[in-house]
Write a structure and sequence with these properties.
By secondary structure, the chain is mainly α. The protein has two helices and no strands. Helices cover 84% and strands 0% of the residues.
Length: 57
């Protein structure tokens, strides 16, 4: 997201977003980070359950 804003500013000479735009960009970045942590947590949890199933068989 930040690279897109920087690229638009440098290559297209467009103005930087205002405070409302930065708020939206921040929410998107926060959502991406939270999603990544959630997926990683689920992956670790499923990996542990798979090892338990192998041991019980």
């Amino acid at each position: 997201m930040l690279f897109v804003v920087a690229g638009e500013s440098l290559l297209l000479s467009s103005p930087l977003p205002g405070s409302f735009g930065w708020t939206g960009i921040s929410l998107i970045i926060l959502g991406i980070v939270l999603h990544s942590f959630n997926v990683k947590k689920i992956s670790v949890k499923n990996k542990g359950e798979g090892q338990k199933l192998k041991q019980s068989v």
